[in-house]
Amino acid sequence: MSAWFDVYGCDLVRDGLLVGAVPRDVDDVAVLRGQGVSRVVCLVADEEYEPGDRRAVEAAYAAARIVESRVPSQDFGRLPAAALEASSALVADALDGGATVYLHCRAGWQRSVVTAAASLSRVTGDPPAATLAAVTAARRGACPLPHQVDDLETWWAGR
User: CA-based, 20 to 30 A from 48: which of 23, 77, 110, 117?
Assistant: First the structure.
């Protein structure tokens, strides 16, 4: 397991939904497969990967038969409504289909936490404040940025 994944890891935030850090190697992907993950939604931009990590992870996903979808966003950045709509739809659809989903950003503390809340709001109809509280309680180290929480509320209000 990579040192990065060992430190930041992942947490089950709801049945079928894990949130956490970017997988960096084949061993990290094996951990996910061991958790039953069959779908990954990645919020990480290419430049956030160390050289060679992205290709190694793609190959590991293919070997493990894990389907990955990507909606790259900027670390510490805004989460535009279109990005939240796209990423939360991917997660919600996979959950509805019975998949176990791994949703990640770089450390799994900000973007992925907010996107998990958006996804759960889609699934349950609960307001984002409630789903964000639940995700934040379940994900160690969760610390969504205030502007990202604002983006979540704006996205929900515009749906």
Answer: 117
